[in-house]
Amino acid sequence: MFLRLSSNLVITGTLCSNRLIHWNYFLHNSMLAFVLLALTLCGTTHGCEEGLYGPDCDKTCSATCEFGRCHSSTGRCRSCPPGRDGSQCNRDCKTGMFGHGCDKYCSRYCWSGSEACDPVDGACVNGCKAGYLPPLCVDTCPPGRYGINCTSDCIGNCLDGKCDHAYGYCDKCPEGKTGTRCLDDCPSGKYGMDCAEGCPPSCLNGLCHPITGQCEACPEGFKGISCNE
Question: Which UniProt keywords apply (predicted)?
C-alpha cells in the first residue's frame, strides 16, 4: 500500500485484515494528526492468517504444530499434539511423560514402571502391575477381580466376592469361615464373621456353632443357647 498525505509526508505499508502492518514514514514537519488518520483509514488489525508468521506473513508454521498454528511473530507453536514437545513440537516426550505438552506422568503401576507408557495417551506399554486396571494402570481392579491386569477372579468364600485387588486375599470372611481364601472352618472356641467372636464360656468344653455361636452342649445342670440358664 502507498499513501501520500502531502508533499512532506509519505506512508507506506502492507495492509491485510489478517496480516501485520509495517510502516515507514518520513516526516519533514509534525503531522501527527495525519499519521493517525492514515492508520485509521488503512486499518489496525495485527496478526497473520493461521498457519503463517513473520514480518510479512510469508513463512509457514511448522507442520508439527498442533492444527498448524504458531505465533505470528516468532513462529513458535501455540500448542503441540499429544506426545510432542518443544517450540516446534519436534521432540518426543521425555521418558515417563505423556499428553498435551508432555505435562502428565506415566503411572508408577505400569508393569515396567513409569518409564513404559505411550507418550500420546499414557497407556502402559506392557500392561499393569498386580491390582491395577489397563490401559492407564491408575484405577484398582473392580470388585471380584484381582492380579496382573485384573485378569483373575476372586476365589474361595470371600464375603460378597471381594478380595485384595493385588493378591486375591479375601477382604472379609462370612460367618464360620477363616483363612486368606475363607476356606477354613473356625477353630475351636471361635465363631462369627472372620471367626472373630469367642464362644460363650459356659459352653461345654468351650465349643459352639461356628456361625451362630450357640453352644453345642451344656454342662450338667445348665441349658439354653448359651448354657446360662
Answer: EGF-like domain, Signal
